[in-house]
Each structure stands twice: as structure tokens, then as C-alpha cells.
């Protein structure tokens, strides 16, 4: 006999499906169709360096891309420089704004200035005066290392919430920037990368190899090694973010364990990765992340024996 589902069972199943869908979806910043509102940034480069300005009001509804960056990591450098190079070539038709977010204004200002100089960024570079969360009504997700918001007439046309941004995201991002700025014949990713490397004399490529900060440089005299598997490397970088709360650390570590299951080579990479980051002490991650990281490393080392 076939039983008909009750209303409560149907609602329960629907709720479960919606929960799973929500878990897989990442949202950060205003969504397509929504209005962008003004917010202040501290200008860090150019003739107005040191002054505060409204990054939306000043562009007066022109085609704009707001690139919110939560941290300086090696993985985002290739995408960052592609967007910068495209924006520089389309500066009359597209306003490109890099807005960095930091919990400490002075430290953030120093780090971003150094990064902008090393990469020789041509676009406007600013530091959000609203701290790590960014503009209050923008709803930026701290899990996203980069959030790109394209807009015209102060209305969002596209949004990219990127947890672990990389060059693989460049084609979609470039297509959106070309569309919002009316570019019918945009250059290729390879062309933009070549232009940037030629112009900077290799400075950006060097930073890409070495990482977004001195602490991320993979020098041979450091113990351990950075994982070569891109998925494991991305998880490790998410694990050591200083903005993580306890739940986020636990969630990322659970993803790492799934990634390592029945993969001896990945386990060796994970051991090397955790040896490397724990070597730097409190430079990486939160105190809780370092504690559970040590326990996880000891577990992996026992299993390896």
C-alpha cells in the first residue's frame, strides 16, 4: 500500500532542501537589482592619498566595479591584477575601486600601501573606514576573501562572492566588466596578464610567487611546505584567517578531513602544511585554530607512523 505524505512530512522535506540550498550558497554584498549607497574610504594611493572620500558618490552613477578585499593572500593576486589592468585600460568607461578591509586602521593602511606599491596597482586603492565588516548596509561576508560588485546608475548589475578567488574566476569577471562598461571587444586574460607583467617589470609576478605578505613567503629554510593540491591549499588558507570564529574553524577542519580521506599523499601534504603554519606561532590564525591545529597535526603524524 502506498502512503501519501502528510503535510508535516512535506514541509519537513521542503525545509531540508532549502537548508541544503542555503548551505551551498554564498552571499556577500548588494545583489543584482539593488542600489549601492555611499560609503567613505581612506585613499591610499595617488594625489589624494591620506584623504577620505565617498567611493560611490564621486563616481556619480558611472559604470563602476567595487572590489572589496578581506585579506592579502597569494591566491587573489592574479585576479586582482587582471581586474586592475582591465580597469586601467577602460578608465574612461569604468571606475575601478579596490577597497581593503582591516580590523586595525593603521596596520591595514601600512600593509595595503606596501601591497599596492609592490603590485604597481593603477586603480584607486582605499581602506574602508568602517573596519573589517566594511560599510554597514553592504552585508559583506567575511568568509569571502573577495567580493566584486559591478554597478551602473548606482544599481548592481552583477555580484561575485568569492571565498577563495583565483585566476579561474577571471573570464566570468572580465565578461561582466566588459558588459557594464560597454566594451564589445575586451582583451583576453592572457593579454591583460602580459601587459601587467611588462608594465611592472615582474613586480606582480614576484609577489604572486612570494605571497601577499612577508609571512606567506615559502622559503626553503622554513619547516614543512605549502600543499601542492589546490583544494587542500585553499582550505589551509581559509583555516588560518584571523577573522575566523570557532564554528568557522571547526567547519573548515571538517572539510579538510573529508579532503584527506583515503588519500595518503594528501595526508603528507597536510602534515607539511600544518608544520609550516604552526612554525610561525601567532602570525597565523586564531588561538583556537592554533590549538586544534596542533591536535590535528599530532593525529596525522600518529596515523602516518
CATH architecture of the largest domain: 3-Layer(aba) Sandwich
Give the CA-based shape: globular
Please trace the helix and strand order, writing H or E for each element: HEEEHEHEEEHHHHHHH
Q: Give the number of domains.
A: 2
Kindly state the number of beta strands. 7
Radius of gyration, in Å, reads 21 Å
Report the sheet with the most strands, covering strand number, pairing sense and barrel closure.
7 strands, mixed
First-residue to last-residue Cα separation: 55 Å
CATH topology of the largest domain: Glutaredoxin
Physical arrangement of strands within the biggest beta sheet: 2-1-5-4-3-6-7
Low-pLDDT stretches are: 7-24, 203-220
Q: What portion of residues is helical?
A: 40-55%
Please work out how many helical segments DSSP would assign.
Answer: 10
Word description of this protein:
With 305 residues, this protein is an alpha/beta fold. The protein has 2 domains: 40-210, Glutaredoxin; 218-304, no CATH class. 45% of the residues lie in helices and 13% in strands. It has 10 helices and 7 strands. It has helices at residues 7-24, 77-89, 105-119, 170-181, 189-200, 203-210, 230-239, 246-260, 264-279, 287-304, and strands at residues 40-43, 52-54, 64-69, 95-100, 124-128, 146-152, 155-162. A 7-stranded mixed β-sheet has the order 2-1-5-4-3-6-7, with helices on one face. Helix 7 packs antiparallel against helix 8. The longest helix has 18 residues, at 7-24. It is globular and about 60 Å long. Mean pLDDT is 83; it is low at 7-24 and 203-220.
